Amino acid sequence: MISEKWRVILKATWSYKIWQIAYPIGMYYVVSSLVYFVLTLFMGSSNATYMQRQLICAMATIPVVSSFYREDSRIRETVYGKKQPFSFHQVKTAVICLFVGAMLGMAVNNLLAMTPLMQVSEGFREANEAFFGGRMLYELLGSCLVVPIVEELLFRGVVYRRLQVFFGDKRALVWSAVLFGLLHFNLVQFLYAGILGLLLAVLVQKSGELSAAVLAHIAANTAAVLRQETGWFAFSYQPTIEGLGFTTLLLFAGLSVLWIAFFRKSRKRGCKKTPLTEKSPRP
Hints:
globular
């Protein structure tokens, strides 16, 4: 048996902290990979069934990811107490997060499309062809609903919050975004997922609600799928005056709402005036 003294020392080590971050991610990918392998044996490896397999894989990982999230939630409730009951403020926050996720998701997509990265990245082209090779129904159910929920439970609900405890707010924001980007396995998706991951972590930090990141992720993915399938705003992928202007408008709208909703409010809290005291007599 490990003594309590050595248990405390062990918990303070880097190896313990790294394990606490890597273990949930590893379990998620082990379960996902095993299920994907079995599904490929029965359903084949064609692009037509890719999103069906991804949807089933995501659903299969829910019990694993939820167990980590519930465990951490119980600890937070013990330390900080239970969450406040549902309020209208949460509805307003939800609408804001949907808007910010859609605007900034489209803007980042546009900026990446204006570079040669999508053409030179073979991994991205293969992933993109597989993603849009099947029925739109599975894209909406998978990429726009189940996958965002599972990924947010894992990366913002577990990984980000554990990083926050171990390393503080700023490092947690950066490292959770980097990990989220790296685990998308190609340069284009690394950049997109990394930037999106940073935004999602900021939303969790500022709102205190995991649902903020879930809704913003859903909005960003839904906007991407609908644009690809319908051709909406296709002109904005091009580095033209119209494309750059529209992308600038998206960035301005998303960042402005983000700032007004979360950052300006927090600055006001930090700048409350102290009450006036009686003037001291002049010498």
